[in-house]
Amino acid sequence: MPPTPLFSGPNAPSIAGLRYPDPAVVVLDASFLKYRLFAASVERLATGFRWMEGPVWVGDGGYLLASDVASNRILRWDEATGATTVFREPSNYANGNTRDMQGRLVTCEAAVTRRISRTEHSGRITTLADNFEGKRFNSPNDIVCQSNGAIWFSDPPFQLANDYEGRIAQQEMPQAVYRIDGASGALTQVLNDIAGPNGLCFSPDERKLHVVESRSEPSRRIWSYDVGADGSLSNKTLLIDAAGPGAIDGIKCDADGNIWAGWGGNGAAHASPVELDGVMVFNPQGKVIAHIRLPERCANLCFGGIDNNRLFMASSHSIYALYVNTRGAEIRN
Question: Which domain holds residue 243?
């Protein structure tokens, strides 16, 4: 079945129409025009899920994996057929996914096992980390792999709070971000001073790590850190402030260092939160330059496709995609 354009069906946003350029791609600064493709529209690839997170592109297989968290499964969308099938069920309430430098799937299992797992090429699942200094992780959330093989992940307590998106359990550790060394496998807690560490991404040169603080008041923020050769973080700098109504979740950098952020309106702070749903794009200095409007809150996203120029957006009940005139900074094809 071909993908369903965003502008058809009952969930279509009011701004969409049968024309190019797609009015769902809102240019907020002229600098974004170089990244917008005139004849590319937002497409809804699949729908009918509970809460979508953690998309990752598998280039050598031509498919996308994404976590349907509340359904306790990982789904697979195939580019050639447009079909969506179950890749893994149960998934231990998996959330974030990435691929390492050998193309193996690395997953945040956020409940039951509460671990970072790696799926070997044989299909066998290996535990990379499930505790720090003898205490269990909370609910590993987002994850990125550095080109030197190091794996970084956030560990907020979000999925300990209910039996819908995880399993109710006692929090044993502070909210933190961790690093698994690519050579030794040693685990390090690299920061624990932000409320609700969530989305992670590296700048294209990997000298900066951007981290979403998703429980800060009065608004969510993205902090930027200098990354040392030994994996240490320093020079904490406020890069983006959502300024009240915005709710930042997952983030990715493109090849020019722009930050593409999953976004949702906060009903308590904004009269029409749906107007903010979708993806916000910021330049490397933190200035907002575009808004990709979706009829659902976007939790997470990734770049993929044959040329790594297709933005996949995991958005509440659906998966959306948009071709753009840039490429993702991460290449794991």
Answer: 4-323
